[in-house]
Design a protein that fits this description.
The chain has 232 residues and is α+β, with helices and mostly antiparallel strands. It has 2 domains: 116 residues, Fructose-1,6-Bisphosphatase, subunit A, domain 1 (Fructose-1,6-Bisphosphatase, Chain A, domain 1, 2-Layer Sandwich), CATH 3.30.540; 94 residues, 3-Layer(aba) Sandwich (D-Maltodextrin-Binding Protein, domain 2), CATH 3.40.190. It is built from 6 helices and 16 strands. The strands form 5 sheets. Strands 3-4-5-6-7-8-9 form a 7-stranded mixed beta sheet. Strands 12-16-14 form a 3-stranded antiparallel beta sheet, with helices on both faces. α5 packs parallel to α6. The longest helix has 17 residues. It starts with 9 loop residues before the first strand and ends with a strand.
């Protein structure tokens, strides 16, 4: 937040995505904190992997970190960026923190349920909702909506379509203000793991197009197309 809206320098990574000083500072802080607080658990962080540092995750237990998800939102000043941290065990995200610092919100899956922590520190349980009778509220990516997404939306009864940046879309489903989030464009495991943990703890789901639950620790760390939804 110290760097937010400060005219920071934007660089371009090998995959043409933007990266800022905030990404790199947050990455260093989070990796150091996890290593100190949970020593011995491998940490897969977006910025570390971009620099060629990929740990051995063959044990099946590892952290997945996106230190600044929604870098484009961070650069443009929309407030819709998050910090994503998840613990994966045997392919499933079992703990997750989805923090939106500019919005003073933190979504948490702590192994006992899903919670929203607001700026006053109040922690309240959240729950995804069943599909309303008048149709779904569909949340789509602000920067990655495509023709395939529009075709998916057209096949479903919808009451409203809204947009959101970063992993905040998972938070909207988890707290019961949206119902469907289809994603056909490219995502990486660190983009989804924290939100997946929170949504699952809130009673929702995240599944690939073949109906199987999205798994983690895949070769290359790329995700296939998926649909996140509230209570089925």
């Amino acid at each position: 937040m110290r760097l937010y809206r400060q005219g920071i320098v934007v660089q371009t990574k090998d995959d043409a995505s933007p990266v800022t000083e905030a990404d790199e500072i947050a990455d260093a802080l989070i990796v150091a904190g996890l290593a100190a607080g949970a020593p011995g658990i491998p940490i897969v962080s977006e910025e570390s992997v971009a620099q060629g540092r990929m740990p051995d995750i063959s044990s099946g237990r590892f952290w997945l970190v996106d230190p600044l998800d929604g870098t484009k939102e961070f650069i443009s000043g929309t407030d819709e960026f998050t910090v994503n941290i998840a613990l994966v065990e045997n392919g499933s995200p079992i703990l997750g923190a989805l923090h939106a610092p500019a919005l003073n919100e933190c979504y948490l899956a702590d192994g006992h349920g899903a919670f929203l922590i607001t700026k006053n520190g109040y922690r309240r349980p959240i729950r995804a909702r069943a599909l309303p009778s008048d149709g779904a509220v569909v949340v789509a990516s602000r920067n990655h909506r495509d023709a395939t997404t529009d075709e998916f939306i057209a096949r479903h009864q919808t009451s409203r379509i809204t947009s959101a940046g970063s992993a905040l879309k998972f938070g909207l489903l988890a707290k019961g203000v949206a119902d469907l989030y289809p994603r056909f464009g490219r995502t990486m495991e660190w983009d989804t793991a924290a939100g997946h943990a929170v949504l699952t703890a809130a009673g929702g789901s995240l599944k690939c197009m073949d109906g199987t639950v999205l798994r983690y620790g895949k070769e290359g760390l790329d995700n296939p197309a998926f649909v996140a939804r509230g209570v089925e």
